[in-house]
Design brief:
InterPro entries: GH (IPR017853), Glyco_hydro_17 (IPR000490), Glyco_hydro_17_plant (IPR044965), X8 (IPR012946). It is a single chain. This protein folds into 2 domains: 310 residues, Alpha-Beta Barrel (TIM Barrel), CATH 3.20.20.80; 114 residues, no CATH class. It has 14 helices and 13 strands. A 9-stranded parallel sheet has the order 5-4-3-2-1-11-10-7-6. The structure holds 2-acetamido-2-deoxy-beta-D-glucopyranose (7 copies). One 2-acetamido-2-deoxy-beta-D-glucopyranose binds next to loops.
Length: 497
């Protein structure tokens, strides 16, 4: 008995520990495609990308079967068109759980049911059955003894919050107060999370010019463009954090607390029509790689600093059959044949090691004949989305060489290559890179993979801080992206100090 109790305590400790830093990144898998890959092909893409969390919009049984024993954690969805049936009948709900959840557990690690999607804002006539459907499904889980493994929630649109900024004054549209009260009470009672679809892309494109693009893409703001909530004095570094905080404050305004938020959709389209210039590969890559970095750093928002924000990127594939404007069809990171449109790293970057043992004596360096703008792009990519450790090429550090783009890019390319080669990273960088066995290390500037040992204490004497292309910061993309310096809407000016 004693030892059993001891075990329970250890288990509890472990659970608490992992939830304190357990932010995860997942991806949504929409399937409105003319040539959808097979479930097995989808799972092999997920595995190759080391993606461990997915959200399905339905409970496709082929997909759930293919996900069995994959170690991938799954949110299944009740599509909006099945909501009415389930919300009106406990037995329909029990049947749904039996066929789509119980039949696959434990081989398939289903942990959440997302009931409908943005129900209140997209199919308001089904609003009254939303919470009953959630309750019926939960009762069915309870009856099947699955209520500890599987939780029930329902993704809400940011459109539920008419005014997001400043976050401290945000509230849900009061037309929905009665239902939101029931919804929040249900989440509270069942210890489930609030699911939020937070899409800065829509806010940015709708309110063109109010907020700078850097703010939306998690890039550094100009010093005179800080975005501050005047009531709390919280400094918002990016729109994503402000949106999540707006939802926390909206929950608080209905007198609920202690309900964590999972972001069930956020992303950026890589292509759009002629009138959608912000939907492009550069922005999609910047947004998605920076959201991964943001989430995996484990921190919360300014108002909830210790609550990390598990997040699902929207989405795995471009969905060519989705209705709407061109950008709607282009939120995917991959096209149907499995080709990546741009390269993201989903794993936990801090865990990768710069010194892959097999690579000692092999280096990835910049081709000195490469075009300098292509090198600049490669360098930005390596230090930004590629997550190379670029500390050593900052001004004042041993490998910094003012105006020597080839030297800087070589360091960054090589660091990236050594970190990622074991998991498929390549030495390419838009054809500006090549491998060599000649060790580029010099003085105290030691490249990953070098057999040279010793410390890198001193700095070389030739440092000129403030080079032509500026310090190599992790997010130096900003320099080549549109910069909105004038914030045009008077009502927002007070928040920009
Ligand atoms: C399912 O996922 C949860 C949450 O990540 C994890 O704690 C659990 O160990 C997983 N179960 C299995 C069988 O993999
Ligand atoms: C609030 O929701 C109601 C009902 O859907 C809608 O008619 C109204 O326009 C919304 N108000 C705002 C400010 O969005
Ligand atoms: C929340 O609680 C405060 C203080 O108890 C009360 O004044 C307020 O009316 C409550 N608000 C709601 C929406 O229930
Ligand atoms: C994590 O992200 C938050 C929000 O963007 C930021 O304030 C914080 O400095 C980051 N922490 C680390 C360790 O990078
Ligand atoms: C995959 O599709 C893309 C665009 O549709 C195309 O450019 C590429 O060549 C295809 N790749 C393969 C391996 O079929
Ligand atoms: C370096 O770049 C030049 C110009 O683009 C190209 O001709 C050459 O083949 C490249 N060298 C290597 C080793 O890739
Ligand atoms: C990055 O490199 C610097 C030395 O250049 C080192 O001190 C630091 O620990 C490295 N950081 C990580 C996260 O590897």
């Amino acid at each position: 008995m004693l030892s059993e109790k001891w075990e329970t305590n250890v288990l509890l400790l472990i659970i608490l520990f992992s939830s304190a830093s357990g932010a995860s990144i997942g991806i949504n898998i929409g399937t409105q495609m003319s040539n959808l890959p097979s479930a097995a092909e989808i799972v092999s893409i997920l595995k190759a990308q080391q993606i461990q969390h997915v959200r399905l919009f339905d409970a496709d049984n082929q997909m759930l079967k293919a996900l069995a024993n994959s170690g991938i954690e799954v949110i299944v969805g009740v599509p909006n068109d099945q909501l009415l049936q389930i919300g009106e009948s406990q037995s329909e709900a029990a049947d749904w759980i039996k066929k789509n959840v119980a039949a696959f557990i434990p081989a398939t690690n289903i942990t959440y049911i997302a009931v409908g999607n943005e129900v209140l804002t997209t199919i308001p006539n089904a609003a009254l059955v939303l919470v009953p459907a959630m309750k019926f499904l939960h009762s069915a889980l309870l009856a099947a003894n699955l209520n500890f493994q599987v939780k029930v929630s329902s993704p809400q649109s940011m459109d539920m919050i008419p005014k997001h900024f400043p976050p401290s004054t945000a509230t849900f549209n009061s037309s929905w107060n009665a239902i939101m009260n029931q919804y929040l009470q249900f989440l509270k009672n069942t210890e489930a999370s609030f699911m939020l679809n937070a899409q800065p892309y829509y806010s940015y494109t709708k309110e063109q010019g109010i907020f700078p693009l850097e703010y939306v893409l998690f890039q550094p703001l100009k010093p005179n463009n800080q975005i501050v909530d005047p009531n709390t004095n919280f400094d918002y570094l990016n729109m994503f954090d402000a949106m999540v905080d707006a939802a926390y404050y909206s929950i608080k305004s209905l007198n609920f607390s202690g309900i964590p938020i999972i972001v069930t959709a956020t992303g950026w389209p890589s292509q759009g029509g002629a009138s959608e210039p912000d939907a492009n590969i550069d922005n999609a890559l910047a947004y998605n790689s920076n959201i991964i970095r943001r989430v995996l750093n484990g921190s919360g928002t300014p108002s909830q600093p210790t609550t990390s924000i598990s997040t699902y990127i929207h989405e795995l594939f471009n969905e060519d059959l989705r209705p709407g404007v061109d950008s709607e069809k282009n939120w995917g990171v991959f096209v149907a044949n499995g080709t990546a449109l741009y390269s993201l790293t989903f794993g936990h970057l801090a865990e990768t090691n710069a010194d892959s043992i097999g690579l000692v004596g092999l280096f990835c360096v910049a081709n000195f004949s490469a075009d300098s703008s292509a090198l600049k792009k490669g360098l930005d990519w390596a230090c930004g989305p590629g997550s190379a450790n670029c500390t050593a090429i900052q001004p004042g550090q041993p490998c910094y060489e003012a105006n020597n783009l080839v030297a800087l890019a070589s360091y960054a390319y090589n660091d990236y290559y050594h970190r990622t080669q074991a998991s498929g990273g390549t030495c390419n960088f838009g054809n500006t890179a090549m491998t060599t066995t000649t060790d580029p290390s010099h003085g105290s500037c030691i490249f990953a993979g070098s057999s040279a040992s010793g410390s890198s204490a001193g700095t070389t004497g030739s440092l000129t801080p403030g080079s032509a292309f500026g310090p190599v910061a992790a997010f130096s993309w900003a320099s080549r992206l549109q910069v909105v310096s004038t914030l045009q809407v008077a009502s927002l000016l007070p928040f920009l100090v």
